Amino acid sequence: MTSIADAPASALTGISAGRRWFTLMLQVVIASVMAMLNILNVLIGPLAEANGWGITEVLFTFTLAFWIGSPATIVGGRIRDAFGNRPVILVGAILYGVGVVASGLVTNVIAFILLQGIVVTAITFSVTVAQLHNVGALFPDRRGFVIGLFLGLGSLGTALLTPFAAWLTEQVTPGMSMVLQGIIYGGVAAVLATLIASAPKNTPDVPVESDLAEGRLVGSLGLEVPWRRLVRLPSLYLLLVTFFLATLTPGLLITNVSLMAQAATGIDAISASWMSSAFLIATGLGGLVMGYLSDKVGEFRMLGIMAALVGLSLVIVVLFLSSIPVFVGMVVISGLAFGCYTTLLPAIVMNVYGQRHFGVNYGILGLQVLVQSLLLPWLGAAIPIQTAFIICATASFLGIGAVLLAQRSIQKLLESRQRPVLGPEV
């Protein structure tokens, strides 16, 4: 079997290593500036005050974006599959800038919610699909590590832009601040999009070098599975269950970590806000570190290990609920796990189901967040905190079993890859 070391990415892609790494750095900057929903946190208060909007009304933007994200990924994936990566990134960057500018010009709260919650969100997710595919296709020999690098550095870049957004809003009106940011971010992203190297449409993949029976998957199975075949595969539904269970705890902490920290440990709101920072930093580090490790030990092993660690940390929190160090430890472990999960999902989709239909297939795997959106408000507010953590710990431990079932299903897919119905498309 061909070793990864025998299949250098430069030969597979026809693009030099220097050009590919330069493209990765450009794409990190594009990801950093095309994350207005994250930057919006510091703009909502001033915008609401300046326009006479209710905070609750404006916050509905995030709820709408949560629901739009997965369908937008599927639609954006179809567009990417049809036109390629660079055209989608370039046009998306321009439309993104226009959308943010328009958001700053409107004074009607409904128009703002629709522009940010639907238009800008849909554009962002469509571009993200193309970005992920391009990164994964340019580095077929170290896909997990590079996707983790892309996501982790992109998140860090957006975090660095947040103080700039707050400063700019103090210098001009909130609306004008959004207009200027739309021009700057959209312009920067569009210019950089013209400079990136776009992976060839049918980039060869590194052959699989793995022992799935032991939870390792390094390289590609060599399949190209369109969504109509994907929805008939048991592995799809097992992966959906796996990521639903594994990301339940991080999803809960993203929306409720500050309030839960106050309720559990008795700390004040300002101190609890650092819990959110700790989670975000750990998420970025998780993408970097776990992506690298997954290329060494295998993606399914990493999923199982992180699910076990999250489950154990939750059990300890339940036993020592008022302990601040224990709570911080659980938050950090969950953040690392979330960075791991968000890195490995696109890598697994590309390695198992192929590059050609990555956009749509990745969007389908992301649909599990819609179910989570119905469950998380109940977990975060409607039941006692200890009960919520017990449920999340149970979900994490069940996630280990789901990982095992998923890898067995994909093992069968690997064994049948020569069958015409599932073999590489001509």
Notes on the structure:
With 426 residues, the protein is mainly α. It has 2 domains: 15-193, Growth Hormone, Chain: A (Up-down Bundle); 212-415, MFS general substrate transporter like domains (Growth Hormone, Chain: A), CATH 1.20.1250.20. Helices cover 78% and strands 0% of the residues. Helix 6 (85-105) runs antiparallel to helix 9 (174-193), helix 7 runs antiparallel to helix 8 (143-171) and helix 11 runs parallel beside helix 17 (368-382). The protein is globular and about 60 Å long.
Number of domains: 2
- Which secondary-structure class do the elements indicate? mainly alpha
CATH 4th-level superfamily of the largest domain: MFS general substrate transporter like domains
Beta-strand percentage range: under 5%
Q: Determine the fraction of residues in helical runs and give it as a percent range.
A: over 70%
- Major sheet: size, sense and barrel closure? none
Average pLDDT level:
81
What is the annotated CATH architecture of the largest domain? Up-down Bundle
Rg, please? Answer: 21 Å
- pLDDT < 50 runs, ≥5 residues: 1-7, 418-426
CATH topology of the largest domain: Growth Hormone, Chain: A
Ends distance: 22 Å
Number of helices: 18
- The total count of strands amounts to 0
CATH class of the largest domain: Mainly Alpha
Element pattern in H and E = HHHHHHHHHHHHHHHHHH
Shape: globular
